[in-house]
Write a structure and sequence with these properties.
404 residues; Growth Hormone, Chain: A
Length: 404
């Protein structure tokens, strides 16, 4: 029988196989977190009709959520830095449950928006902590693969979460989708409690002569991250509107999003295989594919086949984006893993919320056909930052370092 000291011994970072249970738990929690954030995307037409608001206004449900994350990620992560990491993650999953239940029963758009803001506050902490958590489960030179495996949960949110909640919503009502999602968040919380080992916090890099260069590299990574997400979500927030305008039947919207999203797993697989070996090349290829797909979407819209094919290419590229920027940010060692996670989380959600708002402005102003062109310009800007910032996105493999 193991001794009490053995049972309570802190987790020691090892290889990916040793950390498999914890990585699976984080991937599962990430799946429900991403689905919670993005579930309005496929349901915008239904929500806007039921609550008597425009599709552009309904899209602000994504914006409000994301801006809560952007504003609160760093301060909440700092305020909770002394709390046990696992307890903090489980608390955020509980708040996801509450947020989704309130949305499901809310009689007005205003109350739906308040509930989404509550979920956004939980999200601010969840992803900030989970990024650092995943990097602590394995030795430093394996962080890219660990983060890529966890972000498979995010890809699954696109592949399964959003399309399935969209299909469910179109079949039996959008409110039912939120209730089912609340149950999924509760289940993820139970499994996370059982499978995820506890890890220690801390790990702030030393204040040495290279600190300024590390912080500059981190700033470059997070800037490119914000631009990439801004470009993507300018278009993706309104992908259901684009597909319907391209001639897709409402009943086919969920299955189409499912098939398109499934291709994102190819991008996630590519990231898992390459990030710890060729970070710079992987980043350039990823953003290049995203930009090409969104540009093709603009050129082929409103043709149904061309729009679907372009969206598929775009999805393949975006499947790798989260892991690429999380890994690049962690490897800069510009701050502690939790603060790095908060900065990646915050800048990604500046892009998500800003993209939803920018897309709404373009949609209500210039018109739907212009949305992809605005999006691709921003993704290209992110690619330019990557090409210039060679230190932030190094070409060589990760080097194992002594844990600090």
């Amino acid at each position: 029988m193991p001794s009490p000291s053995h049972r309570t011994a802190p987790w020691q970072p090892g290889d990916v196989r040793e950390a498999a249970g914890g990585l699976f738990a984080l991937a599962l929690a990430t799946f429900v977190a991403i689905t919670t954030e993005l579930v309005p995307v496929g349901l915008l037409p239904l929500i806007s009709d039921d609550l008597d608001v425009s599709e552009g206004v309904a899209g602000l449900l994504v914006t409000a959520y994301a801006f809560m994350v952007a504003a609160l990620a760093v301060p909440l992560t700092s305020a909770t830095r002394k709390l046990p990491r696992k307890t903090l993650l489980l608390t955020t999953l509980g708040i996801y449950v509450l947020s989704n239940v309130i949305v499901a029963v809310a009689p007005t758009f205003a109350l739906v928006a308040v509930a989404r803001a509550l979920g956004g506050a939980a999200h601010a902490v969840f992803f900030s902590v989970s990024i650092g958590y995943a990097s602590r489960l394995v030795r430093p030179h394996l962080a890219g693969r660990a983060l890529a495996l966890v972000t498979l949960g995010a890809s699954a949110g696109f592949v399964l979460g959003v399309p399935l909640t969209t299909s469910l919503g179109t079949a039996v009502g959008w409110r039912t989708s939120f209730l089912v999602l609340a149950g999924a968040c509760a289940l993820a919380g139970v499994l996370t409690a059982l499978l995820l080992p506890s890890v220690a916090g801390g790990g702030t890099p030393p204040a040495d002569a290279a600190r300024g260069a590390r912080r500059t590299a981190l700033a470059q990574v997070t800037s490119a991250n914000a631009l990439a997400y801004l470009g993507h979500y300018t278009v993706y927030t309104y992908v259901s509107v684009l597909l319907l305008a391209a001639g897709l039947a409402t009943a086919a919207l969920g299955p189409a999003l499912l098939l398109i999203g499934a291709l994102g797993l190819l991008g996630a697989w590519y990231a898992a295989a390459r990030l710890d070996v060729r970070l710079r090349q992987t980043t350039v290829v990823t953003l290049g594919v995203v930009a090409a797909g969104i540009l093709a979407l603009g050129l082929t819209f409103p043709g149904t086949v061309g729009t679907l094919a372009a969206a598929a290419v775009w999805s393949i590229g975006f499947g790798a984006v989260a892991a690429v920027f999380q890994t690049a940010a962690i490897r800069t060692r510009g701050a502690s893993p939790d603060v790095v996670g908060a900065l990646v989380n915050s800048t990604a959600n500046i892009g998500i919320g800003g993209g939803a708002a920018l897309g709404a402005l373009v949609l209500d102003g210039v018109g739907l056909p212009a949305v992809p062109y605005v999006g691709v310009a921003l993704v290209v800007a992110a690619l330019v930052v990557v090409l210039v910032a060679r230190r932030a996105f190094p070409a060589g493999p990760a080097v194992e370092q002594t844990a600090e």
